[in-house]
Specification:
single chain, 149 residues, 6 helices, 66% helix
Length: 149
């Protein structure tokens, strides 16, 4: 459940940034070599060679789920690493999870209704799972692995 909420939060947070980088399907490529030559007498051939390039551009421009998670972690990790140690302790990790739960609930149009004792237990279990090397702190790579599930 935690992974699902976290993944939904990450996608909700990163989708506006990803949408800015997407290439619309109806936009012709910017490469001048693919543009039709106005002096050419064979314009149907030039037009048909442009269409496949425009259709395939968006799929190659979309980053993978791993890249999206990495970008979100890189962008937000310093915000929650309050002691700037390069790792998240339990309190810093709980702060991140709290924000992710709130944003996930907002994205769904609901409220976070989990009781405080239940929330503390949930966060403690999430920290234990994310702390793969049992060092009592979570590195960026451990966080990325945890968020990817």
């Amino acid at each position: 459940m935690l992974r699902l909420i976290t993944a939904a939060s990450i996608l909700a947070l990163s989708s506006p940034a990803l949408a800015q980088n997407a290439v619309p399907l109806d936009t012709p490529p910017q490469d001048s070599s693919a543009a039709p030559n106005p002096e050419s007498t064979d314009t149907p051939m030039a037009d048909s060679s442009v269409a496949p390039a425009a259709e395939t551009a968006p799929s190659s421009a979309e980053p993978s789920k791993e890249m999206q998670v990495k970008q979100v972690v890189e962008a937000n990790f310093p915000t929650y690493d309050s002691d700037q140690s390069g790792d998240l302790n339990a309190a810093e990790f709980d702060g991140w999870l709290t924000v992710l739960r709130e944003k996930s609930a907002q994205a769904k149009g609901t409220a976070d209704t989990m009781a405080e004792p239940e929330k503390k237990t949930w966060m403690k279990a999430a920290f234990a799972k994310a702390d793969a090397d049992k060092s009592k702190k979570i590195s960026k790579s451990e966080l990325e692995t945890f968020l990817l599930g």
